[in-house]
Amino acid sequence: VADRWAVPSCIAVAEPARGLGHGRAMLHALIVEASQLGARQLGLQVEASYTRARTLCDAEGFIEHHRYAYLSRP
Chain-centre distance of CA 63, in angstroms? Predict the structure, then answer.
């Protein structure tokens, strides 16, 4: 937590366990933990093509703030 922000990263559910509620449970646990550590804002980075995760975030009240891209030399 920095400046009342928490930005968890590299969170994933193994393919065979997807769709069983584990992602929602992890997100809720992260929200609680971040709040207990003093966070008042939570930022998530979700790949645009990962529709299941985006649907979960939408259902939990998160909104898209911005998009970004990785650049590399040819």
Answer: 11
